[in-house]
Amino acid sequence: MDTPIYKRVLLKISGEALAGDKHSGLDFEVIGRVCDSIQECVKMGVQVGLVVGGGNFWRGVKDGGGRMERTRADHMGMMATVLNCLAVADVLEQKGVDVRVQTAIEMRAIAEPYIRSKAIRHLEKGRVVIFGCGTGNPFFSTDTAAVLRAAEIGAEVILLAKNIDGVYSADPMKDPKAVKYDFITYDDVLAQHLQVMDSTATSLSMDNHIPVLLFALKDPHNIVRVVCGEKIGTIVKEA
User: Where does the chain bind UMP (predicted)?
Assistant: First the structure.
């Protein structure tokens, strides 16, 4: 078994990734492979916090833009994240992984309310903690929620599992001359308006000195590879 280089990580997975090729809803084959990798990390002694987006069900700005009041549309997006949290928690539990779901908006019948000290205690006991409802506030993305929770639980790194294999100088689907970076600073991401995370999330990770490692989720085993220090994807950190 490989040796992890991180003790505690915050893994962020987009909702769209959980939909697989269907692009909406849930693909349990994909979720199963993701959970296999999370399980492997837990077996290596890595403490895993997880934030999942909700875009496979609802994206507040995109789906509600111009037709709904923004705050209500964002609240619907928060509810969408909970659907994904419960699905991932169920698959992890089927694999024998101890899990707790905590939500920023209280819904005690199905999840614990988010309490920082309790989340840390769960992590110390080897449980995966899945954080739902984003930050609990409208106008903030789940990327920002991931950085916020990473700072609160003292995560050493944010693992950003995306549908792209790294940070590029331009959109590689549109510009064949786009260059992939192995390393880039927070300042350069902000100055070049690169689509790593939204600017609020990037600034928050910079202010709290938390490196962000972006990699492709197409092969979910990449989660294990980056935890063990394999050089894949792009790392965003201070110079």
Answer: 54, 74, 135-142
